[in-house]
Amino acid sequence: MFIDETIDLPDYLPERLQSDFLELRKYYDADDWFNFDIFFEGVEATVKGYYLAGKISREDLNCIFRKYGIM
C-alpha cells in the first residue's frame, strides 16, 4: 500500500472521489493500515464504477491506479 507523491490527480475529478482520496490520505498519514486497506477497497470499486459510467476517462483511471499502486 502506497501513495505515489509524484503523481498529481486532476482537479476536475468528481467531488466524491476527491473526498475519498482525502480520507485515504488521513489513514495513510496516520499509518493506520487497517482502515486504509478497508476503505481503499471501497474507493477502488467507486473509481471503477465512475469509469464504467463514463464519469472519468481511461486516462484518469490509469492516473489514479498509478498513484495508489493498483496495477
The dominant shape is: globular
Largest sheet: none
Order of helices and strands: HHH
Mean pLDDT: 95
Share of β-strand residues: under 5%
Percent helix, as a range, is 55-70%
| Oligomeric state of the chains present here | single chain
SSE class: mainly alpha
Radius of gyration: 11 Å
Q: Give the distance, in angstroms, between the N- and C-terminal Cα atoms.
A: 12 Å
* Low-confidence runs: none
Number of helices: 3
Let me know the number of strands: 0
Task: Describe the model.
- With 71 residues, this protein is mostly helical.
- It is 63% helix and 0% strand.
- It has 3 helices and no strands.
- It has helices at residues 15-29, 33-52, 58-67.
- The radius of gyration is 11 Å and the shape is globular.
List the helices and strands and how they pair.
Layout: H1 15-29, H2 33-52, H3 58-67
List keywords for this structure.
71 residues, mainly alpha, 0% strand
Concise overview:
The protein has helices at 15-29, 33-52, 58-67. The chain is an all-alpha fold and 71 residues long.
